Amino acid sequence: MPAKIINGFEIAKRKRVEIALEVEQLKEKGVTPGLAVILVGDNHASRTYVSNKQKACQEAGMYSLLVELPESVPEAELLEKIRMLNTDDSIHGILVQLPLPGHIDETKVIDTIAPAKDVDGFHPINIGKMMTGQDAFLPCTPYGVMVLLEDSGIDIPGKNVVIVGRSNIVGKPSGQLFLNKDATVTYCHSKTKNLKEHTSKADILVAAVGKANFITAEHVKDGAVVIDVGINRNEAGKLCGDVAFDEVAEKAGYITPVPKGVGPMTITMLLANTLKAAKSGK
Ligand code: GUN
User: Fold this and answer.
1) Which CATH number applies to 30-114?
2) Assessment of whether the complete model's pTM goes beyond 0.90
3) Ligand 1 near 140 CB (within 6 A)
4) CATH fold of 139-263, please?
5) Which of 119, 135, 165, 267 could form a cystine bridge with 273, CB 3.0-4.6 A?
6) Which residue from 159, 115, 146, 151 is spatially nearest to 227, judged by alpha carbons?
7) What is the pLDDT of residues 99-126, one digit of tens each?
8) What are the residue ranges of CATH 3.40.50.10860 in the chain?
9) What's the CA-to-centroid distance between 121 and ligand 1, angstroms?
10) Are strands 232-233 and 239-240 parallel, antiparallel or unpaired?
11) For 205-221, what is each residue's pLDDT tens digit?
12) Centre of ligand 1 from the C-alpha of residue 197, in Å
């Protein structure tokens, strides 16, 4: 039987309505959640992501501030801008769009964001809290994956979860969130031997590699849940994930499509985190 398609677009839409309602209630108490997005340089993809984030923010009734800095901005100037936003009461969340130009140290930038405003969940304080199961801002894409599964009624405790990819933004934190929910987690990456041997044991397979059609039917167990975090362009220039969708959908139990799978959830969780930041202490 072909897989059930997890419609991230619809789930995200529903969640955004819930968030907008809460924003409205918060505004009645005199607090408008505010998100500052810092864009350095003119990377085309980054500009698109940032404009989508801003639009979603405004649609949810939040205040959205775009800070644009030139490619050549000195690191010290960017850090100073972050420090100013850290103490700006109209701003509850700060996001610096990555990647940054080569002369800027990303780690230093992330470390400068106040942990209480780190709605990307990239600051070591939030990562440490997530690892130890404390309340934290969770990184938006892994958080979105968990919400998709929860909304689809997919049980996690005791499941074999295999994560393909070990980026700091997606792979590593995704594994941690599954571990926090009592899954048995395996990380696979570019040095993994016999990838198929691992992935074919997965009850839940998360593909976060960044290569079109990397995961094929032979990697997937019958009835598995397949979550595709990839955003790639194939040879024809068409947007696609890391999973060869058509053949894997014949074998999997559940699958997320690209587009309209995990993607819309990332921005939704950014809104959820900004709302959480605005609510804290209010
Ligand atoms: N670049 C690619 N993904 C992300 C993300 O989730 N947050 C930020 N700040 N930059 C990114």
Assistant:
1) 3.40.50.10860
2) yes
3) yes
4) Rossmann fold (3.40.50)
5) 119
6) 146
7) 999 999 999 999 999 999 999 999 999 9
8) 30-114
9) 10
10) antiparallel
11) 999 999 999 999 999 99
12) 31
